[in-house]
Design a protein that fits this description.
By secondary structure, the protein is of the alpha+beta class. It is built from three helices and 19 strands.
Length: 370
């Protein structure tokens, strides 16, 4: 009986050691594979390219010129000669006011001017006569002064009558509304028969009779930070991208750079002008302005994702990841200029580089392009 228990004990102990030994090598193997396994990576071969540092700002497109057509005199609208969307030329008659009352006022002013002219002519003749008589001492100084005062009064009345006549003529002239520049009728804000008060012309965007715009050129205003404004100058080239026109870029020029910052935002206003002869760009839409503030030709560049902690990269060399410290230059959204630390053609790891250690085994599975 004791022998049977001894055999059982021996079997149990043997099984325990077998299981223990079989587990230990497996764990070591797993650790070894995890520690020394080869990492798949993709590389980019360092190349020389043109790189530009860019600033990106958004704003609203505005017409180069915009005006609300409003008469300088109040009254009833007699005619509107254009419709929304019509192209018009500078000086073209767009609308006219009812001029019946204005015409009567002009005739009245012309009659008053004629009376004043006659009085002036008579007073001048009397003064010339008195000039001769005073030299001959045939009249007194008092008589001469009275005639002279009558002449001065007649001259003043003539000027007043002429001013009234000129005002009546001006009122007739401005009752005819003409285009101050060539453009397109953006909106029709009134109808024939409406009574217009010119004093209300600037209170809203739809005041007045018509709205005329010229967007053969487009302007877009953006606010730039105090840091970036040092890189911006008048006459600098700018690119415009519009979400409504994907894949297209429009070249323009910086037209205005404010020298003083806005007191509330602490930013500087910059205006960009873009030619728009074919009228593809429309006022009121959003756009993105891209400013190339600095450019280097034939610079060594790598993709942004190759840079780790803004100071080093890994290159694939002899099946291993080799850490290289680098000095960075210009940057944009996709590329970084390498000033020191790399040479043209170096295979920089751009995918699979996170978590790598210097000297870790790697396998190149592909090459990427910028």
């Amino acid at each position: 009986m004791k022998r049977i228990w001894s055999l059982k004990t021996l079997v149990v102990i043997s099984l325990f050691f077998v299981l223990f030994d079989s587990c230990r090598p497996q764990k070591k193997q797993e650790v070894k594979e995890a520690t020394f396994g080869t990492s798949p990576v993709k590389v980019f071969k360092v190349s020389k390219q043109r790189i530009s540092e860019k600033l990106f700002y958004t704003g609203t497109l505005e017409a180069w010129q915009r005006v609300v057509i409003t008469p300088d005199v109040g009254g009833k609208i007699a005619r509107i000669n254009v419709n929304e969307g019509d192209r018009v030329s500078k000086g073209q008659v767009l609308a006219e006011m009812d001029i019946e009352a204005l015409d009567l006022q002009l005739k009245q002013a012309e009659a008053a001017q004629a009376v004043a002219q006659a009085r002036y002519n008579d007073a001048r003749v009397n003064l010339e006569r008195m000039d001769r008589l005073i030299k001959e001492k045939a009249v007194s100084e008092q008589q001469y002064e009275q005639v002279k005062l009558g002449f001065d009064a007649a001259a003043a009345q003539l000027k007043q009558a002429e001013a009234a006549m000129n005002l009546a003529r001006h009122s007739l002239d401005v009752s005819i509304m003409k285009a101050p520049f060539s453009g397109i009728i953006a909106s029709k804000n009134a109808d024939v028969g409406d009574v217009i008060n010119p004093m209300m012309g600037s209170f809203s965007a739809t005041s007045g009779v018509l709205t005329l715009v010229d967007f053969s050129r487009i302007k877009i205003r953006v606010d730039i930070s105090s840091t970036d404004i040092q890189l911006v100058r008048k006459g600098q080239t700018a690119l415009l991208r519009v979400p409504a026109l994907p894949g297209q870029e429009f070249r323009g020029t910086i037209n205005v750079v404010n020298l003083a910052a806005d007191p509330s935002t602490k930013k500087f206003g910059v205006e960009v002008v873009i030619e728009n002869a074919d009228l593809v760009l429309r006022p009121g839409t959003f756009g993105e302005i891209v400013l190339e503030v600095s450019t280097h030709e034939n610079a060594l560049v790598v993709p942004q994702k190759a840079i780790l902690e803004n100071k080093y990269v890994f290159i694939a060399q002899d099946g291993k990841a080799v850490k290289r410290e680098v000095t960075l230059g210009l940057q944009n959204t996709t590329l970084v200029e390498i000033v020191t630390g790399l040479a043209e053609g170096d295979p920089v790891i751009v995918e699979g580089n996170f978590g790598l250690e210097d000297g870790a085994p790697v396998e190149i599975t592909g090459e990427v392009t910028p």
